[in-house]
Amino acid sequence: MKIMGLQKVKLGKTAKKFRLKLIMAFGSQVNGKTHPKSDLDIAVLFPSGDFTFKKYGELHSSLLDVFPGYEVDMVILNRADPLLLKKINENPLLLFGEKRDFDEFRIYAFNRYEDYRPYLAMEEKIVDNLVTEMRNEYRQGSGKKKV
Known about the structure:
The protein is an alpha+beta fold. It has a single domain, classed as Beta Polymerase, domain 2. Helices cover about 55% and strands about 15% of the residues. It has five helices and four strands. Strands 3-2-1-4 form a four-stranded mixed sheet, sandwiched between helices. It is elongated.
């Protein structure tokens, strides 16, 4: 995915208007695994957590104008959970912002996920135990959970 000419100018104006630190593309449009209904995944980073639902809507509308013909799926990095940060960090494409800020985001995303991994393992174990328990109950009874 490349942005050129007028699109690049519009993206820069949008970034300045909303005081964005970073704009990145990620997902199928970046890795080339698209299909006819593929959307465009865009991640944005505000310099602070200072944004409102109204600002979200206005920014999304501006991005639709920058990328006509795409269904834009926008993620606010300031509010993204560790799993989403990991997914974005797998193949981000910097569209706007400083390389240093981009590199700092990538390190931050990696660290957030690594810090969260033990909790994911615990969650997986709990779910596995619950599924095993439910299977055993189903095999022992009529398939209805006993209260």
